[in-house]
C-alpha cells in the first residue's frame, strides 16, 4: 500500500488523509479528509474504497483529536520584540519602548517575525489567527507559506492627524488589494483601527464604513485599561464602547480585544450588536490592567467570547494552551467564583467561538467542515489518566502534547515536526538583532 507516511510528502497540500483517531468525547472514530481539505466522512471504521483512496493514513491511536484552535488577537511579528521590554507600565511600555522600536521596522522584519509566530502557534495547535500589525503584505506572504488561516489588518493609528489618517487609509486599501491578489481562501484582509485612544472618531468612522463596503472584519483594542476609559469619558463625554458604536464600529463583524473595563451597560451593547470579544488574560495580567474581562456578563449579554494571546511583547509567547488555562483560572480568581469558565467553555471559546468570530467554519470536527484538526498525544504525563480530555487539555497540557496539526486538510505539523523551523529561528534572531541595531544607530 502506498498510504504509508512519508515525512516529506505529508506536508504537501492537496492530499487525502485518513486519521484513525479518538474525538474529545472519547469516541473512537476514523476521519476521512478529502483532497479539497474538508472532512468527507466520520465513522467508527473507514475501510474499502475510501480507505484505499487516502494518500496517507495517520495512526491517531495514541492521540485525541480536537478541533483546531483559533487565536483571535495577535500582533504576530512582535515575536521579534520578545523580551525587549518587560515589567513596565502599559502606557510607558508602548510609548517609550515599543513604538520607538517599531518605528524602525521594515517588511523583512515582519516577514520573519510572522514566520516565527506561525511556527509557535502551530506548535500549540493553532490553525487560525486574527492579526493586527504593519507591513501586512509581508505577513500575508509568511502566512501563505506556513499554510495557516489568518485575518490580517493594518494597525490604523492616526492620533487625530488628517495627514496620518490619509496614509493609514492608503495602507489599509493596499492590504485589501494585496490580499485579493494572493487569492488564498485561507487569508482575508480586515480593517484594524488600533483603539479609541489612538484613532480619532473620523478615522473610526472611515474604518467602519470601509469594513462594511468590503464585508470584512473590524479588529480593535477596547477598554484595556481604566485610564483609557477615563480619558475617553473626559475627551468624548462617553465610554469607549459607546463611542465605537457611535462611529459604527460595533457589529457581528467586530473583534474587540481585551474589554477588561467594560461596565454592564457596555457589555449589554456589545451583546446586542453581536460583537466578538477576544479575552487576552496573560497580557492583561502581565500589564497589570487590574480587572479581568467580565466573562459571564458578556456571555449573558450574547456576545461571542473568544480567546487571544496578544503580541509576544506582552505575553511573551503565542501558546494558546497556556492561554486557555490562564483564562479559566484568572476568571475564577478575579470574580471569586470557582465554577466560572469551566474547561469545556475554555475549549469552546478557542474553537467554535473563535472560528465564528473569524468566519472560518464552525470550529467543530464534523462532516463537510474544513479539516482543522489537532491531534494531542495521550501517551504523555499530562494526559494520564484520561478521565476527561478537555480538562487535561485546558488545565494540564503544554504544547509538548501537540503531535499533529491539520489546517483545511493540509498537514502543518506531523509528529512534532514543522518543515524548515530551524532556518526560521536563525533568521528571526538575526532580523531582531538588526532591528535593534538600526534603532540604536539612529538614536546616536
Ligand atoms: O496590549 C496592547 N495594547 C495596545 N497596543 C498594543 C498592545 N500590544 C501591542 N500593541 C500595539 O498595537 C499595534 C498594532 O497595530 C502595535 O503598535 C503594537 O505595538
Ligand atoms: Zn493587542
Explain the overall architecture.
It is globular and about 70 Å long. Helix 9 links the parallel strand 11 and strand 12. The chain contains 15 helices and 16 strands. The chain starts with 16 loop residues before the first strand and ends with a helix. By secondary structure, the protein is α/β, with parallel strands linked by helices. Helix content is 41%, strand content 20%. The protein folds into two domains: 9-67 and 371-417, Urease, subunit C, domain 1 (Roll); 69-358, TIM Barrel (Alpha-Beta Barrel). Bound molecules: inosine and zinc ion (ZN). The site of zinc ion has 6 residues, from loops. Zinc ion (ZN) binds at residues 73, 75, 221, 257, 310-311.
CATH homologous superfamily caption of the largest domain: Metal-dependent hydrolases
Cofactors and ligands? inosine, zinc ion
Number of strands: 16
User: What is the domain tally?
Assistant: 2
Q: In which range does the helix fraction lie?
A: 40-55%
What is the name of the CATH architecture of the largest domain?
A: Alpha-Beta Barrel
**Average pLDDT rating:** 96
Strand content: 15-25%
The residue ranges in which pLDDT falls below 50 over 5 or more consecutive positions are none
The largest β sheet comes out as: 4 strands, mixed
Compute the separation of the termini in Å.
65 Å
Biggest sheet strand order reads 3-2-1-4
Label the overall shape: globular
* CATH class value of the largest domain: Alpha Beta
Query: What is the tally of helical segments?
Result: 15
Write a compact overview of the structure shown.
This protein has 444 residues and is an alpha/beta fold. The chain is built from 15 helices and 16 strands. The protein has helices at 48-53, 90-102, 107-123, 136-146, 162-182, 201-213, 226-236, 240-246, 264-273, 281-286, 295-301, 320-334, 343-358, 389-396, 421-443; strands spanning 17-22, 28-33, 39-43, 56-59, 63-67, 69-74, 126-133, 149-156, 187-193, 218-222, 254-258, 276-279, 304-307, 373-377, 402-407, 410-413.
Amino acid at each position: 500500500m502506498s498510504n504509508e507516511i512519508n515525512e516529506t510528502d505529508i506536508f504537501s497540500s492537496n492530499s487525502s488523509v485518513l486519521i484513525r483517531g479518538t474525538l474529545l468525547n472519547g469516541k473512537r472514530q476514523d476521519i476521512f479528509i478529502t483532497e479539497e481539505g474538508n472532512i468527507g466522512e466520520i465513522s467508527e471504521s473507514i475501510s474499502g474504497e475510501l480507505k484505499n483512496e487516502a494518500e496517507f493514513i495517520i495512526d491517531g491511536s495514541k492521540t485525541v483529536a480536537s478541533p483546531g484552535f483559533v487565536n483571535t488577537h495577535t500582533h504576530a511579528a512582535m515575536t521579534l520584540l520578545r523580551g525587549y521590554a518587560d515589567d513596565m507600565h502599559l502606557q510607558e511600555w508602548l510609548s517609550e519602548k515599543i513604538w520607538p522600536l517599531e518605528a524602525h521596522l521594515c517588511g523583512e522584519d515582519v516577514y520573519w517575525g510572522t514566520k516565527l509566530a506561525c511556527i509557535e502557534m502551530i506548535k500549540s495547535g493553532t490553525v487560525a489567527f486574527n492579526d493586527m500589525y504593519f507591513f501586512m503584505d509581508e505577513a500575508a506572504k509568511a502566512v501563505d507559506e506556513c499554510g495557516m488561516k489568518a485575518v490580517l489588518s493594518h494597525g490604523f493609528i492616526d492620533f487625530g492627524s488628517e495627514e496620518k489618517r490619509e496614509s493609514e487609509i492608503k495602507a489599509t486599501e493596499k492590504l485589501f488589494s494585496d490580499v485579493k491578489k494572493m487569492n488564498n481562501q485561507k487569508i482575508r484582509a480586515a480593517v484594524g483601527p488600533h483603539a479609541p485612544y489612538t484613532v480619532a472618531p473620523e478615522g473610526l468612522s472611515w474604518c467602519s464604513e470601509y469594513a462594511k463596503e468590503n464585508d470584512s472584519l473590524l479588529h480593535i483594542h477596547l477598554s484595556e485599561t481604566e485610564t483609557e476609559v477615563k480619558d475617553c469619558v473626559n475627551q468624548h463625554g462617553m465610554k469607549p464602547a459607546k463611542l465605537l458604536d457611535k462611529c459604527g464600529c460595533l457589529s457581528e463583524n467586530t473583534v474587540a480585544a481585551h474589554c477588561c473595563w467594560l461596565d454592564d451597560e457596555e457589555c449589554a451593547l456589545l451583546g446586542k450588536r453581536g460583537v466578538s470579544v477576544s479575552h487576552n488574560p496573560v497580557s492583561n495580567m502581565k500589564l497589570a490592567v487590574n480587572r479581568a474581562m467580565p466573562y459571564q456578563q458578556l456571555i449573558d449579554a450574547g456576545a461571542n467570547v473568544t480567546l487571544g494571546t496578544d503580541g509576544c511583547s506582552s505575553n511573551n509567547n503565542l501558546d494558546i494552551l497556556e492561554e486557555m488555562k490562564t483564562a479559566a483560572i484568572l476568571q475564577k480568581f478575579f470574580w471569586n467564583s470557582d465554577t466560572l469558565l469551566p474547561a469545556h467553555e475554555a475549549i469552546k471559546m478557542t474553537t467554535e467561538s473563535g472560528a465564528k468570530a473569524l468566519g472560518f467554519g464552525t470550529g467543530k470536527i464534523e462532516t463537510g467542515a474544513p479539516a482543522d484538526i489537532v491531534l494531542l498525544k495521550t501517551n504523555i504525563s499530562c494526559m494520564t489518566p484520561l478521565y476527561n480530555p478537555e480538562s487535561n487539555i485546558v488545565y494540564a497540557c503544554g504544547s509538548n502534547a501537540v503531535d499533529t496539526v491539520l489546517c483545511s486538510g493540509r498537514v502543518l505539523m506531523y509528529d512534532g515536526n514543522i518543515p524548515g523551523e530551524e532556518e526560521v529561528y536563525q533568521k528571526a534572531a538575526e532580523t531582531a538583532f538588526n532591528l535593534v541595531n538600526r534603532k540604536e544607530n539612529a538614536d546616536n
